[in-house]
Structure formats: structure tokens, C-alpha cells
Amino acid sequence: MRVSDAKAKTAVVTGSTRGIGYGIADSLMARGCNVVLSGPGQDSCDAAVEKLNAKHAGTAKALAVACDVTSETDVTALWDAAVEAFGGVDIWLNNAGMALTGPTLSDLPSDDFQTMLNINLLGAMNGCKTAFNGMKENGGAIYNMLGAGWDGNPVPGMIGYATSKAGLTFMTKSFVAEADGSKVLVNSFAPGVVITEGFMREQERSGGKIPAARAAVLNIIGDHVETIADWVADTMLQNEAHGELFNWLTPERIAERRAMEPARNILAAYDLTITD
After folding, report:
1. Are 70 and 122 in contact (CB under 8 A)?
2. For residue range 236-275, what is the model confidence (pLDDT) as tens digits?
3. How many other C-beta atoms are found inside a 10 Å radius of the C-beta of residue 68?
4. 78, 82, 190 from 37: Cα distances, Å
5. Known catalytic residues?
6. Other C-beta atoms within 10 Å of 87: how many?
7. CATH homologous superfamily of domain 10-194+224-260?
């Protein structure tokens, strides 16, 4: 099933009141899709939807639904609200995530570890289960948003987050096999490093300072929200494949950026202090 074949499409994007989720919702609406935004708080959902509906008036509509993705009841209610408002769901993107960075395993609070597992892994499982059961008769597409650690490689200072994303990679591969032969496409995105509000929050926890060596790497591998949001939206609307991992930060893209003259400097757009 190619999601762009019909006229107006409906997408549910979890974790979409800010950051990359909000950016993706914005990009989808710019392409004529109705979008159901969700987050844990109704006020933040309402504020995000108010902005997007004003921006895309006459083109697409957004609906706000508060949802705790760790609750299967909440996720089911999110699906039901989308169907009631727009008649069905064509795209479901499990984007909600939490990264609490810094501590090594010996210092990581167990509650923080559990929070990341619950949101990043259990939350995606609830979304996959709910969307698949809702789509299996008429078809649709489910996407999981991966992140640092998805490839099984350790990421310094992100042991909890990376563990959850490595688990999500495995779960997605297993789910792809289970959904094979159905009317539902299952795929995933590896978006690279996106400079979101969450990224900035974690930098502020360390005083807003980034060592020069790390800044040099981020200037090569990092991206603005808008760049990744447009790529994700276009990919979801054009995709006909099942079982694909759409990887933004390919070796070819990294090599191209390393060769740029003058040197790429996306961090200049943000309030960050680079230290020696």
C-alpha cells in the first residue's frame, strides 16, 4: 500500500507537541495530511494543535489527544479519537521518546532507566499493537523512530536510552516478520542526531557547554528538526516497502559533510558554548 495514492491521509504521531514529532506533524500537514498530535499533557497538545491549525488552515487539520504511551488504554483511546475525527488512520508513527543522558551504568538511577524503557520500548509496543489491530483489515503503515544505539553500538553517556533503542530495533525486526503478508507495512527510521528541545535540555544539564572535539563531530552528524521532518514526511507518503530501515546518516552523507568548505557549522544556530 502506497500511502500517497489516496486524497487526504490521516497520520498519528506520538510525542508530537514539540521537537522532531512536532516538526513531522508540521511537514505532513504542509503536504495535505490530517494529523493527530499526542503528548502526555492536554495543554501542550492543545497549544501545538492551535499553532498548526492556524498555519495550515484550509489545507489540513490537526487534532490534540493527550496520551501516555506507556498505557495501552491511553493508546487505544488515541486510535479511537483519530478514527472518530477522520474516519481512519493511514500512518502511525511511534515517535514518543525520552533520553536522560550523562550517567554511566554504575551511576544511572534505576527509575530513570525504567522510564526510558517504558516510554521508548513499551510505548512503541503499545502503538504497534494498537495500530496493527486497527489497520489489518483496510491496510496502513506503521513506523518506529529509532535513535542512538539502534545499531547495537554503545553510545557514551546514553546507556539507558541506547539500550531501549537497541531493543526497539529488535522488536521492529520481529514485528516486520509477524506482519509479513498482511495489509500493514512496518518500517523504521534512524534519523541521526537532531537538535531538538530535548537535545538542548540535556546540554543545559551539563551547563550548556560542549567540548570543541564533540562540537566538531556534531557539526558533521547533526541536523535541524526541519531537515529531518521533511525527509520523514516525504518518505512515509511515498513508501511502498515493508521491512525497511530508513537511515538518514549514511556513510556517504557523512563523507560529503566532512568534505564541505567552509566547514559545516549547524551549532551556530543554537545557544551553546563551545569549550576547549
Report:
1. yes
2. 999 999 999 999 999 999 999 999 999 999 999 998 889 9
3. 19
4. 9, 10, 21
5. 161
6. 10
7. NAD(P)-binding Rossmann-like Domain (3.40.50.720)
